[in-house]
Amino acid sequence: MNLSCEIIRDLLPLYHDGVCSNDSKALVEEHLMYCANCRTELIAMDHTFPMNMMEQNLKEAEAVKKLSKEWKAEQLKSSLKGALFTLLTVIVFVLVLYLFIGIEIG
């Protein structure tokens, strides 16, 4: 079967990673026997793909680190606000009991 280079280029990443079906693998290998352009593209995947992915992964990792720091800071801020609100609520409650109901504390 003679497939176009466009179809083979769609299959090349799967073939390169070894995750395509046996039928697709056979079609790609048959095409690669007579198509120098697709062979060159397959070889280029060995040289360019890992570096591009590594750079992209490093950028994404930095973004995740930044978001994590921001999230932790917001979480601390929210916790402190919650603790302050709880403390103020208890103080108001105790003052109401002491002033209006006449309960002695201590």
Task: Summarize the structure in words.
This is Anti-sigma-W factor RsiW. It holds the Pfam family zf-HC2. With 106 residues, this protein is mostly helical. The chain has one domain. It is built from three helices and no strands. It has helices at residues 5-17, 22-34, 36-101. Helix 1 crosses helix 2 and helix 1 crosses helix 3 (36-101). The chain is rod-shaped and about 100 Å long. The termini are far apart. The model has no long low-confidence stretch (mean pLDDT 86).
> Which parts are unreliable, with pLDDT below 50 for 5 consecutive residues or more?
none
Number of strands: 0
Terminal Cα separation, in Å? 94 Å
Largest sheet: none
Helix and strand element order: HHH
Question: Percentage of helical residues?
Answer: over 70%
Shape: rod-shaped
Give the integer mean of the pLDDT values.
Answer: 86
| Tally of individual helices | 3
Sheet-strand content, in percent, reads under 5%
Count of discrete domains: 1
Class by SSE composition = mainly alpha
Evaluate the radius of gyration. 32 Å
Structure in a nutshell:
The protein has 106 residues and is mainly α. The protein is built from three helices and no strands. 87% of the residues lie in helices and 0% in strands.
SSE arrangement:
Blueprint: H1 5-17, H2 22-34, H3 36-101
Transmembrane segments: 82-103
Family: Belongs to the zinc-associated anti-sigma factor (ZAS) superfamily. Anti-sigma-W factor family.
Protein name: Anti-sigma-W factor RsiW
